[in-house]
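Data deposition worksheet. Section B asks for the primary sequence of the deposited chain exactly as it was used as input, without tags or linkers unless they were present during the calculation. Section C holds the resulting structure in token form. Section D is free text for depositor observations; keep each observation to a single sentence. Incomplete worksheets are returned to the depositor.
Section A, Depositor: J.P.
Section B:
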Amino acid sequence: MQQHVQDMDTEQPDEGTGRPPVRSVLVGAGHRGRVYGRFAETWPADMSFTVVVERDPDRRAAAASRHEVPSEHQYASVDELPPAGIHAEAAICATMDADHVEVATTLLRKGYHVLLEKPIAQSAADLLTLEDEAAAAGTVLMVCHVLRYAPFFVEINNRVRDGAIGELVSVTMTEQVRYGHMATAFVRGPWRNADQTGSGMLLAKCCHDLDLMSWLAGPHRPVRVSSTGRLGYFDRDHAPEGAGTRCLGDCRIESSCAYSAKRLYVDLDLYGKHAWSGLPVEDRDSRAARLDSLRGDNPYGECVWRSDNTVVDRQVVSVEFDNGAVGSFTLAGTGCGPARTIMLVGTQGTIEGTLDTGSFTIRRVATSGESVTTTEHVDVGVSHQVHGGGDMPLVADFVGAVRGGTTSPSRTTLDDSINGHLIVFGAERARHERRWVELDEFRTVVQRQ
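Section C:
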């Protein structure tokens, strides 16, 4: 923790200084809430959760127990919260996507500093609403674009800013979503139907990547976008012969199917935070209860080719920036990953690497010697970690911002994050309307001239 924070020029943890921890509200006690909660558990001298807000009583009780939050500081809604300064000064909003704007607005109006999970909002109009609220509140509002804090991307950004490859010409990025994760979260799970959630695949999963593209290309702005993509595999037309409607119901190929719910969620014990969320707490570790659930109405027991999913399983986004630089992002939802790759081409060299390995290669145009290029291999020492190891440095930076200290170049305020979200909104319009979309179509709504 201290090394990560020092590397990013944020404040050091305050253990031993006598400075009190930042008292915080945990809003949303699901998976992301538990991840951010680990910061307070690991570095209690920097942050403590003194309030829990969660509509689900079991999750609320579990989070309160982990953080030793008394019953009088537990709430079902942010509307019940007292103003900032009574029990806490800051809040982490880790709710579902559709609630982000409403919850963050309430927290800001109550005077809290806010760390907001991505995506910020589901429309350009909601971005404007939240921008106005943040300006009026005058408190810290940071966005959880955790990949900016992954040492891999931090170091790449440092090299770009230092001119290692000259003027940036192009950014090419890919994301493979591991097939099991795709099936769980985006075919069977909470983000499977954009009509119901308001967040398509690009917004829910890939606004990280498009934020990174904008960050690396900055201070230049994206000006227009095109995109193509569709749901092309997880549909009824691709159901293999013998596939049923449920894995443990009428399916004749379950024992040999890569997407078998029994194999993924019971035998391999993967993705339990999703698959067993509907079970009573006391049954979640029971094999018999799990199997019964998959035989019943648990959506994670549905055939992946017969779900009501609507989100894409492949998409390409092309971006043009105001200095002429171009960007390309490719999403594939049937990968063996996870794998995020990146290649940046500049006027004097290239940077190419893979997040999961924690390493990248810089090749530069040589101006002397026998070789036409020089090569440097960079290993940041962090590999195969969720979000590239960016989760805890993100929270550390938020603590530093709340305390008024120096924050890192990775810090993403609302203004910083608008461009990445506009690329998403523009790409979805472009995909549906089959045209290039000028992002000024959205900026006239989002940004004041």
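Section D:
The longest strand covers residues 168-178.
Residues 1-16 have pLDDT under 50 and may be disordered.
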